[in-house]
Amino acid sequence: MDTLIALAGGFAVALTWQNLFFALIGSALGTMMGALPGLGPANGVAILIPLAFSLGLGPVPALILLTSVYYGCMYGGRISSILLNIPGDEPAMMTCLDGYPMARNGRAGEALSLSGYASFFGSFFATIGLAILAPQLVRIALLFGPAEYFALFALAFATLGGISSTNQAKAAFAAFLGLMLAMVGVDTQTGTPRLTMGEIHLYDGIDFLVVIVGLFALSEVLIFIEERHGGASAQQAPAIGRIVPSWSLVRHCMPAMTRSTVLGFLAGVLPGAGASLGSFIAYAVEKKVSDRDGTFGKGDPRGVAAPEAGNNAAAGGALVPMLALGVPGSGTTAVLLAVLLAMNITPGPLLFTNNPDVVWGLIAALLIGNVMLLIMNIPMVSLFARVLLLPSRFLMPVVAMISFVGVYGISGSNFDMMMMVLFGVLGWALRKLDVPLVPVVLGVLLGNEMEVNLRRAMTISDGDWSVLLASPLAIGLWSIAIAGFVLPIFTGAMVKRRMKATAVAESAIAEMDRGD
């Protein structure tokens, strides 16, 4: 009952013309960004952060705008997957397996609309799960002390590379780099400058928004400059065909959507698993359960519905630990965490008490945004598909302009502009070396809080390090952290190989069948 009352208050916040407008704009921009191969939700949200701040938005409208972009990107990733066999981002990779064969068989419109229904189903029920589960997680989080929070942050670092990382050593290096960047500035306890190299502009530390925009948005521009390709614009999208699938087809796919929503939501709640794992598990389980006639990989609609419901449910699930514990469950939620911190709002157990308008307004706006996305994604399928024809040589200058104007509008500092370029070059180098960017961002975001909680724990225990293992909760968190870091060393590469092998094999079989 308390949840329903709080959610009603959230709808009162969300149902204003301003917030509805930003939900609509964010959903449309997110869908278009998701359709462009390579951008993905983390980059899409990072690109629009400067815009949100330069407009002077408050916490609620800014968060509604950016989370609508997040959900829209998860919707939009399927467009290039189905029409061109090019995943908009990694979670959309599994959608290619049956979506592209459906398009080649003249059913592109049905595949796009069905994936829109599945995305809505997964996102909508994951948002309801967020509303139910996050407050319960808050009650558990109130048991946390400084030692437990330090262990929780260590858990986030240990697992965020997770199964999605091909090299745990590189993920550890990225986390170390992020923590080192968080240490730049004047020590708040001793007043001693750290890692400032005598530069007075660094005494206040490095603005994490500068880090995020540089690492994600500018590095994307530099990657494009290096490759200088036209991307998806060089290809022609197939004919859309019939737009609305029959009710019997939707009903046929409903069990697949239900199973995949549950699996995807659970994958999203686990820190570090993310939408990629949710999509893969959803497709793999559905194939084992439903593929009795060998139709998966040849244009089976259930092979489109399952991964789309799974990855969109995972996107909603990743918001649960971010809001309730202040620990992001995915790369995109790490970027959203930065936005909240920049607005002096600290996610965690007290968020639901101190800022109920923010959290419940966000949840209500997500429910509304999902309806908006469904309405947009069915009749406007052909329009969004035309985004794929936009040449990257026109898109990337716009990305760079938004980044520079937005960051300068926030800080008015030429030094921050130079730092952003520096982080853009760093992001380009890290991506070339296949070093994940998310642990770097996480280190910058959580490094100071991690240090503060460690110092508090040491102060309370009079310097006794055993306080870090003094409670069953802390021991459990450290155990999960160690397992989360070690197990992917043995299983992560295997899962990644299996994901790619499945995609390649299914695509090859589909091509052979079409050739026959």
Question: In words, what does this structure look like?
Answer:
The protein contains 21 helices and 2 strands. The chain is mostly helical and 516 residues long. It has one domain (2-515). Strands 1-2 form a two-stranded antiparallel sheet. 54% of the residues are buried. The model is unreliable at 230-235 (pLDDT under 50).
Number of domains: 1
- Helix amount: over 70%
Q: How much is the radius of gyration in Å? A: 22 Å
Strand content: under 5%
Largest sheet entry: 2 strands, antiparallel
Identify the strand order in the major beta sheet. Answer: 1-2
Question: Which helices and strands, and how do they pair?
Answer:
Layout: H1 2-14, H2 17-35, H3 40-54, H4 59-84, H5 96-104, H6 108-141, H7 146-160, H8 168-182, E1 185-186, E2 193-194, H9 208-227, H10 247-269, H11 274-290, H12 302-317, H13 319-325, H14 331-342, H15 351-354, H16 356-377, H17 381-385, H18 392-411, H19 414-432, H20 438-460, H21 472-515
